[in-house]
Amino acid sequence: MMRFAKRRQANLTTWAIVVLIAGVLFAAVSAGLTRASFWTGWLLMAAVVLLSLYSQRKRLSMLPIGRAAVWLQLHAYTGAFAIVVFVAHTGLSLPDAPLEWLLWLSFVGTAGSGLAGLYWSRTLPPRLANADEELIFERIPLFAARLRQRAEQLVVDAAAQTDSPLLGEHYRTHLAELFMAPQWRWRHLGPTHYVTRQHDRLIALERYLADDEKPFARELAGLCRQKSDLDMHFTVQGLLKAWLFVHVPLTAAMLLLAVLHLVAAHAFGGA
Amino acid sequence: MAESILTKDLRASGPAPVSSIPPPQRWSQPFGEGMGERDVQRVLTMEPFVSMDPARFRAPITLEGIVRNDTRLRRVARGEIIVRAGDYGNSAFLIVQGRVRVILPPGLPEESLGRARPKQKNWLQAVAQLWKNPPHPEARDASRYVSEPETKAPSPARLIVQDAQGRPLNEHLLPAGGDDEVRIGRGADNDLILDDSTASSSHARIHATELGWEIVDLGSSNGTFVGGDRVERHVLGGGDDIKIGRSRIRFVGEGDLDQTSMLSTRILNPETIDEQWSNTVVENLTHVGADTSHTFVQDIPAVLDHTQSAVLQTGTVFGEIAALGRTQRTATVFAEDDSILLEIRWQGLRDLRKRDNAFRKHVEDLYRANSLITHLRATPLFSHLSDDVIDEIGQQTLFESFGEFDWHTSYQRLADQPEAQRLKIEPEIVRAGDYPDGLLLVRSGFARVTRPLHKGQQTVNYIGRGAVFGLDELLAGWNGSGQSTYRHSLRAVGYADVLRVPTSVIETHVLPNLTDAQLKHIRRMQAETLKDSLATHQPRGEAASVEPLEVRTTGDDDALVETLVDRHLINGRAAMLINLDRCVRCDACTDACAVGHQNNPRFNRHGHRHDSLMIANACMHCADPVCMIGCPTGAIHRSSEQGQVVINDDTCIGCATCANSCPYDNIRMVEVRNERGDFVQNSATGAPVMKATKCDLCIDQPGGPACQRACPHDALERVDMRDLPNLLDWLHR
Fold first, then answer.
1. Does the beta-carbon distance from B706 to A61 stay under 8 Å?
2. Nearest chain A alpha carbon to B596
3. C-alpha angle B552/B555/B556, rounded to 5°?
């Protein structure tokens, strides 16, 4: 079984060779009388079409046409190659017409979202793996509701059994919003695991509580931590899905604009 | 969503989907048709049934009921292969009449076994699932569960593929149900595949009509001929000769069976059987079982000349070890003459063994007589010995069982106990420090290898079928070169059947003649033999050891090995492992599974976690599938090809025995709907009809398990848990 590091090394080497060959061809074409942008445009178009095949492959999961993981590798390295060709095609200059502006923006958006997605796909899963529990995204609202019910029941029980309003007040003031629903917290994407402020507050509050209130506070602090984990899952899994809602529509738009650009270039560009 | 007028009209026009079916019972679907009262009474007068005490069988599972419902009479023609080496067995056979022959190792070449490929969808059918899958969860054609009146179905018949001389090459049954369709052609997706370049890939199909079986040409290039005439459609009659390309196929109807030379009903050994009854059996025998494809040994004299074989006489039972042990058949058996067999499905065998001590002893004696020598001969350590010495070793070998055959009940009971507590309960086969009184060969099940560590036991490895334990200790004792007591303890995980070859036998027959070169060779062979069943992890360049080595793992992996053994996950042959450090939770695996199973994913992306490894709730297709133990109808079974554990939806009665037996919670009970989306109800109780569902490894899809193919991040793999080095390699990629 080939190790990932070795596979990456092999893929990068292949990619570099392809880029080198393309660079030499580009230099040769540029030295001649033919407009190099014509060739780089077609190369870019071919790369974009190849890239778009990946999403079709994902739909045809029932066919033995190679593992999706292999296709993703091809997709990522072809995407990186397309960026190089794009730079060569545009010469790092900004477009000068509305259609080209849209095409330029859609390509940059697609490439940028793709790179971001790749980065998140490689860096965020270990964060999920470190959590105490594995949660299915679609069930997170259900788990959040359960946590809220448990927390509210705990506060009611605490008030009834200890005859003290302190935990109830604290819940209403500081915790009710936390338990209201799954919450997207950017802090969960940060470099350290984010533990809610509310949890720390409850720990700090414990010194002011009577002995019979402390077990309730500790359990409530545990629920805060669970809610924090749940919000982390909600944020991280949400981001791992959300970036595709940018990447895929932009790809479709880019394909359409590229075809229009191709027609315009051939009709009016003297290619 | 509001119902459209069009949809409403469509619903009103077609026949109403079935939404109520009678309550299914254990014997709602008897094993075979044709076990009439006379057959049952006659079988009960035969050994071993006549010696059984009916009083030991309590209602409703009576001895007579077992014979009536768990057995079927089966006629096999001369040359027909009854069981094939490598297939997974679900039934045993009693030879009622005739003569069958078992091929001894190395057996027949693979190409002559005619192994049937599981019927798979072609690419177009696979893609069509994207829009053909029903919109409702667990929707079925519920009419399948209701028996059709027999008068509507055409009589059963057979298609016999013949060579140029009219000798039978292959046979296919057109069952009495009449709801089947047989596709014929050169392509692999046909039911009857012709090895004939002049036949089209999809040449013709035969289907049931009210008039009988009709053959329809599917636009073939060279045409379909019946009785010499080219036909587009033709209702077949008994004895019709069909010509497709160069292939000749004989259509034999129910009443024509005695007209064919191949299927002539010659009664052998009339003194051993009531001839009148046997003739009646032959007349009535039309159904030959679920496996409707038959393969024949082509040249019996040549086979007998070129292979080692043994005759099995009337009254012999065979196939019981594989059926009861849920293991592969170890030898091929074929009919040397036209014969009649009583096929006993394993549910019946299980009950017979449970209730009748003599039958249980009979099975064990059969093992000793039939399988022990085969096992010893297949062990590299003994493979170079003569037959006489092997027989001598067989005589001296002790046959020991540890743990419970249905270990899942105690496993579930003790699941919440601390690991150390569970370890204490595991039966000890060998204790570290004991004098090595024998060489141990694991026959079936699993065993845990441990060594003492501080106040507990550390699991250093696990071994399974085919493993040998204790040779180095015996060698050390023989040479006087080292520690001669067992270095490790060995405990049965669940249950383990072990053969103990006494030390004196090894010292007398094996060690004196064992040269260093032979030992080295044996170690290498053993490593290959155990590759599929033994998890050994060895430093590069070091020869494999015959006894299990300690697993060279990192500290983290030591804990993993403990977990795998504690939770019996080592049982998995295709466990779904997910590397949570790579999984982006995109559910591509779940979606791919759903597409291949009518929009119903057959696993949960959830399950036991160890560090960043998840063993998902997907059927592991266990080496020892305990889910099959209690199934009353045999609905859950192993596929004969690769041993996948699959459920026959038609015969599942929804009793949930398999789901409750599965120690890993990998079988789900679902409420069935009809095509309209209404729940199907039990007509007697009004309760929803339940069916057991689980992963089938995409057995009917092209390309195998879609889940691992669909994972874009190399996060999911179906792994044989018995191959620990491979598992660790995958985990540390």
1. yes
2. A62
3. 110
Cα separation of B436 and B404, whole Å?
25
- CB distance B604 to B590 below 8 Å: no
Contact A125 B582 (CB under 8 A): yes
**pLDDT score of B292:** 41
Is residue A237 within 8 angstroms of chain B, CB to CB?
yes
Put simply, the chain B residues between 661 and 720 with a CB less than 8 A from any chain A CB are 701-704, 706, 708-715
C-alpha distances (whole Å) from B470 to each of A19, B274, B385, B561, B606 are 59, 53, 19, 21, 40
Cα–Cα distance for residue pair B356/B52, rounded to 1 Å: 6
Confidence of residue B286 (pLDDT cuts 50, 70, 90): very low
CA distance A241 to chain B (A): 7
**Cis before B156 (ω within 30):** no
Please state the domain extents for chain A. Answer: 2-128+246-269, 134-238
Residue type for position B274: D
Sequence-distant (6+) residues with CB within 8 A of A89 are: A37, A40, A41, A44
pTM: 0.72
Q: Can you tell me which residue has the tokens 């099959």?
A: B628
Identify the DSSP state of B314.
T
Closest to B145 in 3D by CA, of B292, B15, B17, B293: B17
A132 interfacial to chain B (CB closer than 8 Å)? no
Tell if the CB–CB gap between B733 and A1 is shorter than 8 Å.
yes
Q: State ipTM.
A: 0.90
CA-to-CA distance for B193 and A104, rounded, in angstroms? 56
Count of CB pairs separated by less than 8 Å, A with B? 89
pLDDT tens digit string along B628-667? 876 766 678 887 667 788 888 887 888 888 898 899 999 9
Q: B74 in helix, strand or coil? A: strand
A1 touching B (Cβ < 8 Å): yes
Q: Scan residues 18-47 of B and list those with Cβ closer than 8 Å to A.
A: none
Query: Facing residues of B401 across strands?
Result: B497
Rounded to an integer, the average pLDDT of B663-677 is: 91
CA distance B323 to B345: 8
| A60 contacts on B by Cβ (under 8 Å) | 127
Q: List the helix and strand counts (H, then E) for chain A.
A: 10, 0
B57: helix, coil or strand? coil
Confidence of residue B7 (pLDDT cuts 50, 70, 90): very low
Q: Which of A61, A64, A121 sits opposite B584 (nearest CB)?
A: A121
Convert the pLDDT of each residue in B414-441 to its tens digit: 777 777 777 878 889 999 889 888 999 8
CB contact under 8 A, B580 and A134: yes
Identify which of A1, A58, A137 has the shortest CB distance to residue B729: A1
Q: How many CB atoms lie under 10 A from the CB of residue B188? A: 12
CA–CA gap between residue B544 and residue B309 (Å, rounded):
33
Nearest CA in chain A to B595: A62
Give the integer Cα–Cα distance in Å for A99 and B439: 81
- CA gap B526, B512 in Å, rounded: 20
Q: Identify whether the C-beta of residue B333 lies closer than 8 Å to the C-beta of residue B320.
A: no
pLDDT classification of B728: cutoffs 50, 70, 90? confident
- Please give the C-alpha separations between residue B52 and each of B47, B64, B362, B366, in angstroms, as whole numbers: 9, 11, 12, 17
Contacts of A52 (CB under 8 A, 6+ apart): A251, A255
Alpha-carbon gap, residue B96 to B67, rounded angstroms: 14
Longest pairwise C-alpha distance within chain B: 91
Q: What average pLDDT is seen over chain B?
A: 77
Highest mean pLDDT among B42-56, B155-169, B579-593: B579-593
